[in-house]
Amino acid sequence: MPQIITKIKPDSELFKDNTVAMESLVSTLQTNLAQIKQGGGEKAIERQRKKGKLPVRERIASLIDKGSEFLEIAQFAAWEVYDESVPCAGVVAGIGRVSGVRCMIVANDPAVKGGTYYPLTVKST
Hints:
2-enoyl-CoA Hydratase, Chain A, domain 1
């Protein structure tokens, strides 16, 4: 197999500038994802717990096979679309294994605006 020769020069100023810019973007992405994963916030999650209900991501974790991964998708659905925060458009969706079978999982997050559906929550493409 032929060797792939790169033209990337990690010592160049352009490479260094791009690295700094990318690290900044990745940091912003991680901050935004952490905020999104809070859903409706600690108070809303605590209200759910007082009702004997698990937060949405804990429900999903209890559903999927132990030790398996959950590939969450659409985390930025409705991101900065509405005046108020609507993390994941109020619905957590992704792919996980249930009894050894890959499944599409969609779970309403009642901690986000009491489970209210917004137009983007149910928008089809």
